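Researcher: If convenient, please comment on what follows.
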Amino acid sequence: MFAIMEPLFTEIGKYGKLLWWSGISLRDFSTYYDNTIRRMKFIGIQSLPIVLLTGAFMGMVESVQVLYSLQNRAPLYLVGSVVTESIILELGPVLTALILAGRVGASIAAELGTMRVTEQIDALEVMAFNPVAYLVVPVLIAGVIMTPVLTIFADVIGILSGCIISILTVDLSTAEFLKGARRFFVPWDLTYGIIKSAVFGFFIPANAAYVGFFTKGGAEGVGKATTRSVVISSVMILILDYLMAQFLLKAGW
């Protein structure tokens, strides 16, 4: 049994060691500052178009489905409640995180994996240059900062598009939609969504950096690392989503 679990424990140990190195490397501010700004632009600004597009259609689909469920069964103004709560609590943070896992996580894993197999990371170590501070810390900081920002944009455009579709589809006014949106909303809902997106924003680049940093096997290894990063991050997002829903939402009860 231990022989079967040994590779898993080894991977967990390497993952924890990389995070420990990253924590220690936070003191090397001059090393990671410039790269952090560049990573924030890559994760945040360059991801904004696809996040907004996803958020818009997310709100549209949610609105149509809720209208279908409530038609002739409940007051239609409740569509504002369901759309707003589902987007803020679940769809906005999770779909944004899954998009970043594919776009950002794959890119980071491929970049660091290529640097590892071409011995560029080894060269940095030989020159006594901290590769963790330069390569890993910036993506962690940028992920934690920019993922909640992107999530807020996705929430806003999703709720707005849901409101527009509701108005165009049935005889529902903007005032009625907003009445429903305010009906069950509490400030903790938004706080919970931001906390959840920040956690996702940490683990997506952490997974990608870990996989890329320890890549082996040349070009084939880089390809496998890229795929592995997306799969690990996607599964972890779903697991963390449940755990945070189970424990953090109770704080708002």
About this structure: Residues 20 and 145 are 20 Å apart (CA to CA). The longest helix spans residues 78-117. Residues 29-252 form one domain. The chain has one domain: 29-252.
